[in-house]
Amino acid sequence: AEAAIHSAKSMGVKNKADFVDVQQIIPSVVLDIKYATADNFTHTKLYERPQALLRQGTADKLKEVADEVEKKGYRLKIWDAYRCPEAQFEMWNHVPDVRYVANPYKGYSNHSRGSAIDLTLVDMEGKELAMPTGFDSFTPDAARANQNENARYLENVMVKHGFKPLATEWWHFDDKDTYQPADSVQVLASTVSPQTKETSITISAIGDVTLGQDERFLYEGSFDHYYQLKGPNYFFSGVKEILSEDDLTIANLEGTLTDAIEKPDKRHQGNGAFFFRGNPHYTSILKDGSIEAVNLANNHSMDFLNKGLADTQSTLDHAGITHFGDKKVAVYEKNGVKIGLIGVNSLGPLEEGVDIGDLMSELKANIQTLKGRASLIIVSFHWGIENNYNPTQEQRQLGQFAVDQGADLVLGHHPHVLQTYETYQGKCIVYSLGNFVFGGNSNPKYKDTEIFRQKYSFVNGKLVEISSPQVIPCRLSTSFRPEPVK
Ligand SMILES: C[C@@H](N)C(=O)N[C@H](C)C(=O)O
Ligand SMILES: [Zn+2]
Hints:
Helix content is 24%, strand content 25%. By secondary structure, it is of the alpha/beta class. The chain has two domains: 4-191, 2-Layer Sandwich (Muramoyl-pentapeptide Carboxypeptidase, domain 2); 198-484, 4-Layer Sandwich (Purple Acid Phosphatase, chain A, domain 2), CATH 3.60.21.10.
Protein backbone atom coordinates (compact mmCIF):
# COMPACT_ATOMS: atom_id res chain seq x y z
CA ALA A 1 0.00 0.00 0.00
CA GLU A 2 1.07 3.52 -0.74
CA ALA A 3 2.35 5.42 2.30
CA ALA A 4 0.24 8.42 3.09
CA ILE A 5 3.29 10.43 4.10
CA HIS A 6 4.14 10.70 0.43
CA SER A 7 0.81 12.34 -0.30
CA ALA A 8 1.01 14.60 2.69
CA LYS A 9 4.46 15.88 1.73
CA SER A 10 3.27 17.14 -1.57
CA MET A 11 0.49 19.30 -0.10
CA GLY A 12 0.32 22.67 -1.72
CA VAL A 13 1.02 21.16 -5.15
CA LYS A 14 -2.28 20.38 -6.80
CA ASN A 15 -2.14 16.66 -7.39
CA LYS A 16 -5.34 14.62 -7.57
CA ALA A 17 -3.87 11.89 -5.35
CA ASP A 18 -2.73 14.22 -2.54
CA PHE A 19 -4.57 13.92 0.73
CA VAL A 20 -6.39 17.07 1.77
CA ASP A 21 -8.45 18.16 4.73
CA VAL A 22 -12.02 18.49 3.44
CA GLN A 23 -12.72 21.42 5.78
CA GLN A 24 -10.07 23.41 3.93
CA ILE A 25 -11.71 22.71 0.59
CA ILE A 26 -15.33 23.10 1.77
CA PRO A 27 -15.39 25.54 4.71
CA SER A 28 -19.19 25.19 5.09
CA VAL A 29 -18.99 21.44 5.73
CA VAL A 30 -20.22 20.09 9.07
CA LEU A 31 -18.04 17.36 10.60
CA ASP A 32 -19.50 14.67 12.84
CA ILE A 33 -16.76 12.05 12.63
CA LYS A 34 -18.43 9.24 14.54
CA TYR A 35 -15.37 6.95 14.64
CA ALA A 36 -13.41 9.66 16.47
CA THR A 37 -15.86 9.11 19.34
CA ALA A 38 -17.25 6.00 21.02
CA ASP A 39 -20.66 6.83 19.56
CA ASN A 40 -20.43 4.31 16.73
CA PHE A 41 -21.38 0.69 16.18
CA THR A 42 -18.07 -0.59 17.61
CA HIS A 43 -18.59 1.50 20.79
CA THR A 44 -14.87 2.32 20.61
CA LYS A 45 -13.03 5.47 19.64
CA LEU A 46 -11.19 4.33 16.51
CA TYR A 47 -9.62 7.60 15.32
CA GLU A 48 -7.33 9.97 17.11
CA ARG A 49 -8.76 13.10 15.49
CA PRO A 50 -12.19 14.17 14.23
CA GLN A 51 -10.99 15.14 10.76
CA ALA A 52 -12.13 14.33 7.24
CA LEU A 53 -9.26 13.55 4.88
CA LEU A 54 -9.82 12.73 1.22
CA ARG A 55 -7.87 12.62 -2.01
CA GLN A 56 -7.70 16.03 -3.64
CA GLY A 57 -9.59 14.67 -6.67
CA THR A 58 -12.37 13.29 -4.47
CA ALA A 59 -12.56 16.46 -2.38
CA ASP A 60 -12.81 18.59 -5.54
CA LYS A 61 -15.83 16.57 -6.66
CA LEU A 62 -17.36 16.90 -3.22
CA LYS A 63 -16.88 20.66 -3.39
CA GLU A 64 -19.01 20.69 -6.55
CA VAL A 65 -21.66 18.74 -4.64
CA ALA A 66 -21.49 21.24 -1.73
CA ASP A 67 -21.86 24.18 -4.13
CA GLU A 68 -24.86 22.60 -5.80
CA VAL A 69 -26.75 21.68 -2.61
CA GLU A 70 -26.00 25.12 -1.18
CA LYS A 71 -28.25 26.62 -3.86
CA LYS A 72 -31.10 24.71 -2.22
CA GLY A 73 -30.06 25.94 1.23
CA TYR A 74 -28.28 22.74 2.32
CA ARG A 75 -24.81 21.84 3.57
CA LEU A 76 -22.96 18.54 3.77
CA LYS A 77 -22.43 16.72 7.05
CA ILE A 78 -19.62 14.17 6.95
CA TRP A 79 -19.63 11.12 9.17
CA ASP A 80 -16.53 9.48 7.72
CA ALA A 81 -13.92 9.96 4.99
CA TYR A 82 -10.40 8.43 5.06
CA ARG A 83 -10.27 5.40 7.36
CA CYS A 84 -7.06 3.65 8.39
CA PRO A 85 -6.97 -0.11 7.67
CA GLU A 86 -6.66 -0.92 11.41
CA ALA A 87 -10.05 0.69 11.99
CA GLN A 88 -11.48 -1.37 9.13
CA PHE A 89 -10.34 -4.59 10.84
CA GLU A 90 -11.93 -3.42 14.09
CA MET A 91 -15.21 -2.75 12.28
CA TRP A 92 -15.12 -6.13 10.55
CA ASN A 93 -14.61 -7.82 13.92
CA HIS A 94 -17.90 -6.27 15.07
CA VAL A 95 -19.94 -6.69 11.89
CA PRO A 96 -18.45 -9.29 9.54
CA ASP A 97 -21.12 -8.65 6.93
CA VAL A 98 -20.01 -7.49 3.46
CA ARG A 99 -23.28 -5.65 2.92
CA TYR A 100 -22.24 -3.14 5.60
CA VAL A 101 -18.48 -3.39 6.17
CA ALA A 102 -15.84 -4.06 3.48
CA ASN A 103 -13.90 -7.23 4.31
CA PRO A 104 -10.31 -6.11 5.06
CA TYR A 105 -9.02 -9.68 4.59
CA LYS A 106 -10.10 -9.48 0.96
CA GLY A 107 -8.82 -6.00 0.13
CA TYR A 108 -9.09 -2.37 1.13
CA SER A 109 -12.26 -0.38 1.64
CA ASN A 110 -12.37 2.73 -0.54
CA HIS A 111 -12.39 4.62 2.77
CA SER A 112 -8.78 3.41 3.23
CA ARG A 113 -7.99 4.80 -0.22
CA GLY A 114 -9.33 8.22 0.79
CA SER A 115 -11.93 8.04 -1.96
CA ALA A 116 -15.11 7.04 -0.09
CA ILE A 117 -17.31 9.23 2.01
CA ASP A 118 -20.20 8.74 4.44
CA LEU A 119 -22.39 11.79 4.53
CA THR A 120 -25.82 13.36 4.83
CA LEU A 121 -27.47 16.74 4.25
CA VAL A 122 -28.17 19.44 6.82
CA ASP A 123 -29.94 22.78 6.51
CA MET A 124 -28.21 26.11 7.11
CA GLU A 125 -28.84 25.80 10.85
CA GLY A 126 -27.09 22.42 10.83
CA LYS A 127 -30.30 20.40 11.28
CA GLU A 128 -30.17 17.04 9.54
CA LEU A 129 -32.68 16.44 6.75
CA ALA A 130 -34.94 13.44 7.29
CA MET A 131 -33.28 10.33 5.84
CA PRO A 132 -34.44 6.69 5.73
CA THR A 133 -32.29 5.69 8.77
CA GLY A 134 -29.54 7.03 10.99
CA PHE A 135 -25.83 6.53 10.17
CA ASP A 136 -24.57 2.91 10.23
CA SER A 137 -28.02 1.45 10.67
CA PHE A 138 -27.14 -1.90 9.19
CA THR A 139 -30.70 -2.85 8.20
CA PRO A 140 -32.60 -3.24 4.92
CA ASP A 141 -34.17 0.19 5.57
CA ALA A 142 -30.78 1.72 4.77
CA ALA A 143 -30.77 0.23 1.27
CA ARG A 144 -31.03 2.49 -1.78
CA ALA A 145 -34.19 0.63 -2.74
CA ASN A 146 -35.87 2.21 0.29
CA GLN A 147 -34.67 5.78 -0.11
CA ASN A 148 -36.82 8.79 0.66
CA GLU A 149 -36.85 11.99 -1.39
CA ASN A 150 -33.91 13.58 0.49
CA ALA A 151 -31.71 10.51 0.09
CA ARG A 152 -32.59 10.32 -3.61
CA TYR A 153 -31.70 13.98 -4.03
CA LEU A 154 -28.33 13.43 -2.31
CA GLU A 155 -27.69 10.40 -4.52
CA ASN A 156 -28.55 12.31 -7.70
CA VAL A 157 -26.20 15.17 -6.89
CA MET A 158 -23.36 12.82 -5.84
CA VAL A 159 -23.74 10.74 -9.01
CA LYS A 160 -23.85 13.90 -11.13
CA HIS A 161 -20.44 14.90 -9.75
CA GLY A 162 -18.70 11.57 -10.22
CA PHE A 163 -19.58 9.33 -7.26
CA LYS A 164 -20.93 5.79 -7.18
CA PRO A 165 -23.63 4.98 -4.58
CA LEU A 166 -23.38 1.83 -2.42
CA ALA A 167 -26.60 -0.21 -2.76
CA THR A 168 -26.86 -1.20 0.92
CA GLU A 169 -26.07 2.15 2.61
CA TRP A 170 -27.75 5.40 1.53
CA TRP A 171 -24.95 7.48 3.17
CA HIS A 172 -21.94 5.82 1.48
CA PHE A 173 -20.47 6.96 -1.85
CA ASP A 174 -17.28 5.92 -3.65
CA ASP A 175 -15.36 8.16 -6.00
CA LYS A 176 -15.57 6.65 -9.51
CA ASP A 177 -11.86 7.37 -9.83
CA THR A 178 -9.74 4.83 -8.02
CA TYR A 179 -6.70 5.38 -5.83
CA GLN A 180 -4.14 3.20 -4.07
CA PRO A 181 -4.82 2.34 -0.41
CA ALA A 182 -2.94 4.36 2.24
CA ASP A 183 -1.74 2.61 5.40
CA SER A 184 0.11 5.21 7.38
CA VAL A 185 -2.59 6.67 9.47
CA GLN A 186 -0.27 7.71 12.30
CA VAL A 187 1.98 9.57 9.93
CA LEU A 188 -0.98 10.97 8.08
CA ALA A 189 -2.65 12.32 11.18
CA SER A 190 0.45 14.09 12.43
CA THR A 191 1.87 15.15 9.07
CA VAL A 192 -1.14 16.69 7.44
CA SER A 193 -1.03 20.11 8.98
CA PRO A 194 -4.08 22.22 8.20
CA GLN A 195 -3.53 24.40 5.15
CA THR A 196 -3.97 28.01 6.13
CA LYS A 197 -5.64 30.16 3.55
CA GLU A 198 -5.49 33.85 4.32
CA THR A 199 -7.55 36.26 2.25
CA SER A 200 -8.71 39.80 2.60
CA ILE A 201 -11.52 41.71 0.95
CA THR A 202 -11.87 45.48 0.68
CA ILE A 203 -15.41 46.79 0.44
CA SER A 204 -16.52 50.29 -0.49
CA ALA A 205 -20.00 51.64 0.05
CA ILE A 206 -21.57 54.69 -1.55
CA GLY A 207 -24.93 56.40 -1.23
CA ASP A 208 -27.88 56.95 -3.51
CA VAL A 209 -27.37 56.31 -7.18
CA THR A 210 -30.30 57.36 -9.37
CA LEU A 211 -29.61 56.86 -13.05
CA GLY A 212 -32.24 58.92 -14.88
CA GLN A 213 -34.81 61.25 -13.34
CA ASP A 214 -38.49 61.99 -12.93
CA GLU A 215 -40.10 62.63 -16.32
CA ARG A 216 -41.51 65.93 -15.06
CA PHE A 217 -37.98 67.38 -14.75
CA LEU A 218 -36.77 69.77 -17.41
CA TYR A 219 -34.68 67.87 -19.97
CA GLU A 220 -32.09 70.66 -20.13
CA GLY A 221 -29.54 69.88 -17.40
CA SER A 222 -31.17 66.57 -16.48
CA PHE A 223 -29.36 63.27 -16.01
CA ASP A 224 -30.53 62.02 -19.42
CA HIS A 225 -29.24 65.22 -20.98
CA TYR A 226 -25.81 64.73 -19.39
CA TYR A 227 -25.77 61.14 -20.53
CA GLN A 228 -26.43 62.26 -24.07
CA LEU A 229 -23.76 64.95 -23.91
CA LYS A 230 -21.06 63.03 -22.06
CA GLY A 231 -21.73 59.28 -22.42
CA PRO A 232 -21.72 56.52 -19.81
CA ASN A 233 -18.15 56.94 -18.52
CA TYR A 234 -18.63 60.50 -17.37
CA PHE A 235 -20.64 60.08 -14.15
CA PHE A 236 -18.17 58.00 -12.09
CA SER A 237 -15.04 59.34 -13.80
CA GLY A 238 -14.05 61.37 -10.71
CA VAL A 239 -14.06 58.34 -8.39
CA LYS A 240 -13.61 55.42 -10.74
CA GLU A 241 -9.95 54.99 -9.87
CA ILE A 242 -10.80 54.71 -6.18
CA LEU A 243 -13.72 52.36 -6.70
CA SER A 244 -11.71 50.07 -8.97
CA GLU A 245 -9.14 49.47 -6.21
CA ASP A 246 -11.53 47.53 -4.00
CA ASP A 247 -13.01 44.03 -4.26
CA LEU A 248 -16.64 45.09 -4.00
CA THR A 249 -18.44 48.42 -4.28
CA ILE A 250 -22.02 48.56 -3.04
CA ALA A 251 -24.46 51.35 -3.97
CA ASN A 252 -28.10 52.02 -3.24
CA LEU A 253 -29.82 52.03 -6.65
CA GLU A 254 -32.59 54.50 -5.93
CA GLY A 255 -34.78 54.13 -9.00
CA THR A 256 -35.60 51.89 -11.94
CA LEU A 257 -33.96 51.03 -15.24
CA THR A 258 -36.93 50.39 -17.47
CA ASP A 259 -39.09 51.68 -20.28
CA ALA A 260 -42.28 50.85 -18.38
CA ILE A 261 -44.67 53.78 -18.11
CA GLU A 262 -47.36 52.71 -15.66
CA LYS A 263 -46.83 54.16 -12.19
CA PRO A 264 -48.22 53.36 -8.75
CA ASP A 265 -50.51 55.71 -6.87
CA LYS A 266 -48.37 57.84 -4.56
CA ARG A 267 -50.92 60.53 -3.79
CA HIS A 268 -50.52 59.75 -0.08
CA GLN A 269 -47.04 61.31 -0.35
CA GLY A 270 -48.35 64.63 -1.68
CA ASN A 271 -45.98 66.78 -3.79
CA GLY A 272 -42.92 64.95 -2.55
CA ALA A 273 -43.68 61.89 -4.67
CA PHE A 274 -41.09 61.18 -7.36
CA PHE A 275 -40.90 58.43 -9.98
CA PHE A 276 -37.33 57.70 -11.00
CA ARG A 277 -36.59 55.95 -14.26
CA GLY A 278 -33.53 55.54 -16.47
CA ASN A 279 -32.75 53.73 -19.69
CA PRO A 280 -31.97 50.01 -19.10
CA HIS A 281 -28.64 50.63 -20.89
CA TYR A 282 -27.54 52.79 -17.97
CA THR A 283 -26.11 49.66 -16.35
CA SER A 284 -23.00 50.52 -18.39
CA ILE A 285 -22.60 53.54 -16.08
CA LEU A 286 -22.44 51.19 -13.09
CA LYS A 287 -20.07 48.83 -14.87
CA ASP A 288 -17.77 51.65 -15.80
CA GLY A 289 -17.85 52.98 -12.24
CA SER A 290 -16.84 49.55 -10.90
CA ILE A 291 -20.09 49.10 -8.93
CA GLU A 292 -20.48 45.38 -8.39
CA ALA A 293 -23.62 45.22 -6.23
CA VAL A 294 -26.71 47.36 -5.70
CA ASN A 295 -29.38 47.44 -3.04
CA LEU A 296 -32.95 47.56 -4.33
CA ALA A 297 -34.68 47.68 -0.94
CA ASN A 298 -35.81 51.30 -1.16
CA ASN A 299 -38.83 53.46 -1.86
CA HIS A 300 -38.11 53.92 -5.58
CA SER A 301 -37.57 50.42 -6.98
CA MET A 302 -41.35 50.08 -7.42
CA ASP A 303 -41.75 53.49 -9.13
CA PHE A 304 -42.88 51.71 -12.29
CA LEU A 305 -44.62 48.83 -10.57
CA ASN A 306 -43.65 45.17 -11.02
CA LYS A 307 -42.61 45.62 -14.64
CA GLY A 308 -40.24 48.42 -13.69
CA LEU A 309 -38.64 46.26 -11.01
CA ALA A 310 -38.46 43.16 -13.23
CA ASP A 311 -36.81 45.19 -16.05
CA THR A 312 -34.32 46.62 -13.56
CA GLN A 313 -33.47 43.16 -12.25
CA SER A 314 -33.05 41.67 -15.69
CA THR A 315 -30.86 44.47 -17.04
CA LEU A 316 -28.67 44.23 -13.91
CA ASP A 317 -28.47 40.45 -14.35
CA HIS A 318 -27.53 40.93 -17.97
CA ALA A 319 -24.75 43.32 -16.96
CA GLY A 320 -23.52 40.93 -14.25
CA ILE A 321 -24.30 43.35 -11.41
CA THR A 322 -25.44 41.69 -8.19
CA HIS A 323 -28.71 43.02 -6.76
CA PHE A 324 -30.36 42.34 -3.46
CA GLY A 325 -33.15 43.64 -1.24
CA ASP A 326 -35.72 42.98 -3.95
CA LYS A 327 -37.35 40.29 -1.81
CA LYS A 328 -34.15 38.29 -2.03
CA VAL A 329 -30.72 38.09 -0.51
CA ALA A 330 -27.60 37.69 -2.63
CA VAL A 331 -24.19 36.12 -2.20
CA TYR A 332 -21.28 37.85 -3.92
CA GLU A 333 -18.05 35.85 -4.17
CA LYS A 334 -14.57 37.35 -4.49
CA ASN A 335 -11.17 35.75 -3.83
CA GLY A 336 -13.02 32.64 -2.63
CA VAL A 337 -14.84 34.64 0.08
CA LYS A 338 -18.63 34.68 0.04
CA ILE A 339 -20.28 37.92 1.06
CA GLY A 340 -23.97 37.78 1.99
CA LEU A 341 -26.01 40.85 1.04
CA ILE A 342 -29.37 41.73 2.58
CA GLY A 343 -31.53 44.78 1.85
CA VAL A 344 -34.16 46.09 4.26
CA ASN A 345 -36.64 48.86 3.51
CA SER A 346 -38.15 50.17 6.74
CA LEU A 347 -40.35 52.67 4.88
CA GLY A 348 -42.27 50.30 2.62
CA PRO A 349 -41.99 50.23 -1.20
CA LEU A 350 -44.25 53.30 -1.54
CA GLU A 351 -43.43 54.77 1.87
CA GLU A 352 -46.67 53.39 3.20
CA GLY A 353 -44.89 52.08 6.32
CA VAL A 354 -44.14 48.55 7.50
CA ASP A 355 -44.55 46.51 10.64
CA ILE A 356 -41.15 46.83 12.31
CA GLY A 357 -41.65 43.56 14.24
CA ASP A 358 -42.21 41.64 11.00
CA LEU A 359 -39.27 43.41 9.39
CA MET A 360 -36.99 42.38 12.27
CA SER A 361 -38.15 38.75 12.14
CA GLU A 362 -37.51 38.63 8.40
CA LEU A 363 -34.08 40.19 8.85
CA LYS A 364 -33.21 37.71 11.59
CA ALA A 365 -34.23 34.79 9.33
CA ASN A 366 -32.25 36.19 6.38
CA ILE A 367 -29.12 36.62 8.49
CA GLN A 368 -29.52 33.07 9.80
CA THR A 369 -29.83 31.72 6.26
CA LEU A 370 -26.76 33.59 5.08
CA LYS A 371 -24.66 32.62 8.10
CA GLY A 372 -24.27 29.13 6.70
CA ARG A 373 -23.55 30.37 3.20
CA ALA A 374 -21.31 33.39 3.61
CA SER A 375 -18.26 34.46 5.61
CA LEU A 376 -19.34 38.09 5.83
CA ILE A 377 -22.83 39.57 6.10
CA ILE A 378 -23.77 43.09 5.02
CA VAL A 379 -27.18 44.63 5.67
CA SER A 380 -28.24 47.70 3.71
CA PHE A 381 -31.11 49.64 5.30
CA HIS A 382 -33.42 52.21 3.77
CA TRP A 383 -34.46 54.17 6.84
CA GLY A 384 -34.46 57.47 8.69
CA ILE A 385 -35.79 60.89 7.75
CA GLU A 386 -34.96 62.81 4.59
CA ASN A 387 -32.57 65.76 5.03
CA ASN A 388 -32.07 64.86 8.68
CA TYR A 389 -28.44 64.75 9.81
CA ASN A 390 -29.04 62.66 12.92
CA PRO A 391 -29.96 58.99 13.04
CA THR A 392 -33.32 58.30 14.63
CA GLN A 393 -33.86 56.02 17.59
CA GLU A 394 -35.31 53.47 15.15
CA GLN A 395 -32.18 53.55 12.96
CA ARG A 396 -29.99 52.88 16.01
CA GLN A 397 -32.26 50.11 17.22
CA LEU A 398 -32.40 48.39 13.82
CA GLY A 399 -28.67 48.79 13.15
CA GLN A 400 -27.71 47.29 16.48
CA PHE A 401 -30.28 44.53 16.07
CA ALA A 402 -28.71 43.60 12.71
CA VAL A 403 -25.25 43.39 14.33
CA ASP A 404 -26.62 41.38 17.28
CA GLN A 405 -28.06 38.92 14.76
CA GLY A 406 -24.72 38.54 12.94
CA ALA A 407 -24.30 41.43 10.47
CA ASP A 408 -20.66 42.48 9.98
CA LEU A 409 -21.43 45.81 8.32
CA VAL A 410 -24.60 47.90 8.29
CA LEU A 411 -25.14 50.52 5.59
CA GLY A 412 -27.88 53.14 5.58
CA HIS A 413 -29.62 55.27 2.98
CA HIS A 414 -32.66 57.52 2.49
CA PRO A 415 -31.88 60.76 4.38
CA HIS A 416 -30.01 62.01 1.22
CA VAL A 417 -27.44 63.65 3.52
CA LEU A 418 -24.50 62.18 5.39
CA GLN A 419 -25.06 60.90 8.90
CA THR A 420 -22.46 59.61 11.31
CA TYR A 421 -21.23 56.05 11.63
CA GLU A 422 -20.63 54.19 14.86
CA THR A 423 -18.80 51.05 15.84
CA TYR A 424 -21.00 48.64 17.75
CA GLN A 425 -19.65 45.27 18.93
CA GLY A 426 -16.69 45.83 16.61
CA LYS A 427 -18.95 46.25 13.55
CA CYS A 428 -19.66 49.51 11.73
CA ILE A 429 -23.14 50.97 11.37
CA VAL A 430 -23.05 53.68 8.72
CA TYR A 431 -26.29 55.55 9.26
CA SER A 432 -26.56 57.43 5.98
CA LEU A 433 -24.25 57.67 3.00
CA GLY A 434 -26.10 60.58 1.36
CA ASN A 435 -26.38 61.08 -2.39
CA PHE A 436 -23.74 59.96 -4.87
CA VAL A 437 -24.54 59.88 -8.58
CA PHE A 438 -28.03 61.19 -7.98
CA GLY A 439 -30.22 62.02 -10.97
CA GLY A 440 -33.07 62.89 -8.61
CA ASN A 441 -31.71 66.41 -8.02
CA SER A 442 -29.25 68.20 -10.28
CA ASN A 443 -28.36 70.76 -7.64
CA PRO A 444 -28.83 69.43 -4.11
CA LYS A 445 -28.27 72.00 -1.36
CA TYR A 446 -26.10 69.63 0.64
CA LYS A 447 -23.15 68.50 -1.47
CA ASP A 448 -20.99 66.48 0.92
CA THR A 449 -20.79 62.77 0.32
CA GLU A 450 -18.27 59.98 0.94
CA ILE A 451 -16.93 56.59 0.07
CA PHE A 452 -16.95 54.39 3.16
CA ARG A 453 -14.37 51.63 3.04
CA GLN A 454 -13.31 48.70 5.22
CA LYS A 455 -10.99 45.75 4.81
CA TYR A 456 -11.97 42.32 6.13
CA SER A 457 -9.43 39.55 6.71
CA PHE A 458 -10.24 35.85 6.69
CA VAL A 459 -8.39 32.70 7.64
CA ASN A 460 -9.85 29.60 6.03
CA GLY A 461 -13.04 31.48 5.26
CA LYS A 462 -13.48 32.71 8.83
CA LEU A 463 -13.55 36.45 9.52
CA VAL A 464 -10.62 37.23 11.82
CA GLU A 465 -10.05 40.96 11.52
CA ILE A 466 -11.83 44.13 10.47
CA SER A 467 -9.72 47.19 9.65
CA SER A 468 -10.50 50.65 10.97
CA PRO A 469 -12.94 52.28 8.59
CA GLN A 470 -11.63 54.66 5.97
CA VAL A 471 -13.84 57.54 4.90
CA ILE A 472 -12.95 59.21 1.62
CA PRO A 473 -14.76 62.57 1.61
CA CYS A 474 -16.27 63.55 -1.73
CA ARG A 475 -18.30 66.45 -3.10
CA LEU A 476 -21.30 66.34 -5.39
CA SER A 477 -21.25 68.58 -8.43
CA THR A 478 -24.19 70.22 -10.15
CA SER A 479 -23.66 67.76 -12.97
CA PHE A 480 -24.06 64.33 -11.36
CA ARG A 481 -20.32 63.74 -11.07
CA PRO A 482 -18.97 63.28 -7.51
CA GLU A 483 -15.28 63.90 -6.90
CA PRO A 484 -12.98 63.26 -3.95
CA VAL A 485 -12.27 66.35 -1.89
CA LYS A 486 -8.74 67.51 -2.68
C1 LIG B 1 -18.96 0.89 8.11
C2 LIG B 1 -19.68 1.69 7.09
N1 LIG B 1 -19.77 3.04 7.54
C3 LIG B 1 -18.98 1.60 5.75
O1 LIG B 1 -18.25 2.51 5.40
N2 LIG B 1 -19.19 0.53 4.99
C4 LIG B 1 -18.51 0.31 3.74
C5 LIG B 1 -19.10 -0.85 3.05
C6 LIG B 1 -17.01 0.09 3.93
O2 LIG B 1 -16.61 -0.47 4.96
O3 LIG B 1 -16.26 0.44 3.00
ZN1 LIG C 1 -18.80 4.34 4.08
